[in-house]
Write a structure and sequence with these properties.
The protein has 117 residues and is an alpha+beta fold. The protein has a single domain (14-113), classed as GMP Synthetase, Chain A, domain 3, CATH 3.30.300.130. The chain has helices at 16-27, 74-83, 108-113; strands at residues 45-50, 56-61, 90-95. The protein has a three-stranded mixed sheet with strand order 1-2-3, covered by helices on one side.
């Protein structure tokens, strides 16, 4: 009933580039709990590596400060969000502290959102 109300299904990513973009798009749905900007544009993602078939994703990320109250739970939240992608079977999120995060890692869009430009 009301089939016309359903969102059209997006085609599954086929190439490595499409899978990488799907992972980045998914990362952009995760927001820092203290700053209203997604973690990708905030510059918290230091690295994303996909297996050739896309079934495994390794992510290196940091937090804005080592004492961040979500340090224990945030990597698991990010992993869970990546695992929602239909082509991903496993994901490992590593929390790293070097190099130290600075606001220079933020995209222009994030700086605009936060009124820093």
């Amino acid at each position: 009933m009301f089939e016309w109300l359903k969102e059209p299904e997006q085609p599954a990513p086929q190439s490595q580039e499409e899978m990488e973009q799907a992972v980045i798009d998914q990362l952009k749905t995760v927001y820092d709990p203290e700053i209203p900007v997604n973690i990708y544009d905030l510059g918290l993602i230091y690295g994303v590596v996909l297996a050739e078939d896309g079934k495994h994703v390794d992510i290196q990320m940091t937090l804005t400060a080592p004492g961040c109250p979500v340090a224990q739970t945030f990597p698991g939240e990010v992993e869970g969000r990546i695992m929602e992608l239909p082509f991903v079977d496993t994901c490992k999120v590593e929390l790293v502290w070097e190099p130290t995060w600075t606001r220079d890692r933020m995209t222009e869009a994030a700086m605009l959102d936060l009124g820093m430009m």
